[in-house]
From TrEMBL:
UniProt domain Rad50/SbcC-type AAA: residue ranges: 5-260
A Pfam family per the record: AAA_23
Name of the coding gene: rad50
Residues reported to bind ATP: K12, N32, G33, A34, G35, K36, T37, S38, Q138
InterPro entries with a match to the protein in the record: P-loop_NTPase, Rad50/SbcC_AAA, Rad50_ATPase_archaeal
Binding site for Zn(2+): C455, C458
Coiled coil start-end: 688-732
Function: Part of the Rad50/Mre11 complex, which is involved in the early steps of DNA double-strand break (DSB) repair. Rad50 controls the balance between DNA end bridging and DNA resection via ATP-dependent structural rearrangements of the Rad50/Mre11 complex.
Name assigned to this protein: DNA double-strand break repair Rad50 ATPase
Cofactor names: Zn(2+)
Cofactor binding, note field: Binds 1 zinc ion per homodimer.
Organism (species): Halomarina ordinaria
Amino acid sequence: MQFTRIQLDSFKCFVDESIELQAGVTAMYGANGAGKTSLLEGCFFALYGADALPSGKNLADVIEKGEDEAVVELWFEHDGNQYHVRRQVREYETQTDHDVTLTTPDGPIEDPGPVDDAIEDLFRLDADAFLNCAYVRQGDINKLITASPSDRQDMIDQLLQLGKLDRYENRMGTTRNGIESVKDAKEGTLEGVRSDIDALEDRELEQQLERVESELDEIGDEISTLNDRIAPLEDEQREANEELESLQELESQINDLETEHRQVRSNLGEERKKRVDLENERNQYVTQIASCESTAADHLEETSVESLDLDAVKSRIEEIDRRLDQIETARDVADERVSEFRDAAEEAETTAGELESDADDLEGTAQERRQEADEKESDLSDPRGTLENVESELGDIEKRFAQSSTTRDAVESYKEEKIAELEAIRGELEGLRGKLRTTRDSVGHARLLLIRGRCPECGQEVEDAPNVSSYEEDRDKVRRLKREIQDKESEVAAKEGTVEEARSLADAAGRYESLESRKEDLRREIRGQSETIEALREEANELEEEATTKRARAAYNRTAIPHLEALADRAARARAHLTDEMESLETEQRALSEAQEVLSEADQKHRERDRIDERLEEDVDPQIDHWRNERDRVESELEGTREELDPGRIQRLERRRDGAAQWQSVLEQRRADLESRQGELRSEKGGINEALNELSRKREQRDTLSDQIDRLETVIQQCEAAEQMYRDLREDLRTRNVDELERLLNELFDLLYQTDSYAHFELSDSYELTVYEKSGEALDPTDLSGGERALFNLALRCAIYQLLTEGLSGRAPLPPLILDEPTVYLDEQHINELSGLITRMRELGVDQIILVSHQEELVDAAGERIEIRQDSTTNRSHVRVESRDLLA
Ligand SMILES: Nc1ncnc2c1ncn2[C@@H]1O[C@H](COP(=O)(O)OP(=O)(O)OP(=O)(O)O)[C@@H](O)[C@H]1O
Ligand SMILES: [Zn+2]
């Protein structure tokens, strides 16, 4: 058997590590606190869960600090099969969950209970046994030696499966004890049943039953005789009672009638009294009516109503109301008219005054307007003079133009034309003067030449003077030109006079224009002023007309005033008449109201009187008749009933009935006594029958119990035999194991410890260990040195392993041997010997040995080395695997 791989997630100091594990020897090394022990604990925890925890630790402690879930997975191989166990621990606020799955070739197994059982079966070891045999925890090396012999016996027995026999024996013993206590209980019950049976038999139940039954027969006979005698007595009493009842009925009838008689008479009296009261009341009303009517007649005397008729009075009152309304309206109208006429007269007066003063104002204004017009008229004489001057100057200018050869409109172009003509003539004059100068020059030159004899043309000496003829021609020309110039100069003078005239005409045309507009202005001004004067005069006329109208209206108003005053007086007189009529009507109406009041009262009383009459006729008198008849009827009935009732007969009947009753009660008393005795006897008989049944039940129970006790006894004997068998078998096996173990132990110790002074070990039947020195002295193993103890312990485990391999029943599994720092107490030499022991274990067939050590020799010798290191910053551990093969 070997572990092949372990995976740790958030388990203690491991965050997430997966380690492949090989067969052979694996050494783990690393600094203190690196996590070596934790790794081994991981393997152990994967297998045994909660049972693997040291005492005082709980599931949550395996979870990496700061996490809430840890998962450990272990893969292992056994008998050529692969197994995988996965444990998961999760911490919640208040609880810790634990899940586990074991995967086997036969399928998965879930949940801690079933998985733990399966692991125990596979390894044939529970957690304790695993610790005692396969896993030597740090510091646990001496466990087997320091244990007490009986503990050691238990440990070893368990390892060698002897514990099972012990358990079977105990189980059998428990069973036997149980059966024995059942048997004891049954025996106790049986004893009780037996004594009950004895007591019941002592009571002679059959004889008692016979006696009770004969007495019951006698009593039954006597009771039936009594019943025969009681029946006729009951009949007699019933008959008497019936008759008495009918007589009592009569008596009560008489009582009822007497009561009724009294009641009827009292009712009659009441009705009669009612009648008297009503008549009194009626008389009062009659008197009151008469008095009311006489008062009304007095009031009516002052009015126009003649009868004592309420309706006539009412209608006259209404008539007066209507007339008063009319008068009221008429008086208001009259009032209105009086004040209207008076107001009108006053108004006429005022209006007349106002009109007259208005007329005065208007006449004054008219006067003012006329003055204003006259002033404006005299102002007009200046502009009129100016206008005349302007008009005569205009006439002069028109005359000038009429005599000229142009018009006022054409004068400007006429002037321009004349100036142009003058310029042209002047030009011609200049031309003539130029020609004259030229001609004179050539004449002068020719004369010089002629004087010098030279040709005036070419300057050459002239003989025959070819050009002398042109000289003459030019002298003619000068004379002609002089004449022409003179003519032209006189023409220019004439033209200059014409131009002067044209210019003066043009100026006159300008002046005419401005005079024309001046004339228009003056005319407009004179026309405007004249219109104003006209308007003022017209206004004065109108004002005077209006004043005249106003004066006429004032006069009219003044004549209306006396008429209006007369009308007002007439209206005032009409109103006074209306007031008189109103007052007399009001007096009459007051008298009528008084009369109406007393007449209504009289009417009311009439109705009261009629009501009383009605009551008497319809209610009281018929009642009186009724009660009188009732009284007569009751009296005659009473007389009849009294005759019917006979007092002697009642007494006789009562005596007969009481006698029968007395005799009946005597007989019934006797019967009751008998019946109570009968009851007693019946219950006594019931009791006896019950006891007889009980007796037969108890006898059956007694038989069943003794049968059961016999059978239990047999079973107890079988149990004892089985217990003995297990005991013998265990002793036998232990003796054989102890001998074998002792032999193996000595053999191994010799191998490990040859050089020392110890002779051999002795292992007693009760697993007491003794060490013998060579000198023959005996020693307790606890007296050995620390190193010696460690080696001895390993030797003992080794021996047990060997015994297991040799096997008692087939091939036992050899779990990996796990040693956590086994070298603590060993010196150099003994460490070598430990190596030898390890080699031997391998030879024995232990597939896998995992050890933790700081010892280089041991680590170097291992086939597989695992370094465990702690990360100093996170405090978490990491694993590094080196194979010796790789190192080599
Ligand atoms: N639940 C946990 N979470 C985190 N760290 C833990 C937890 N439990 C223990 N540790 C830490 O794990 C570390 C390893 O302890 P372990 O006993 O495995 O070391 P070791 O290598 O066997 O040391 P030594 O050589 O001294 O025996 C310790 O430092 C411890 O504080
Ligand atoms: Zn450790």
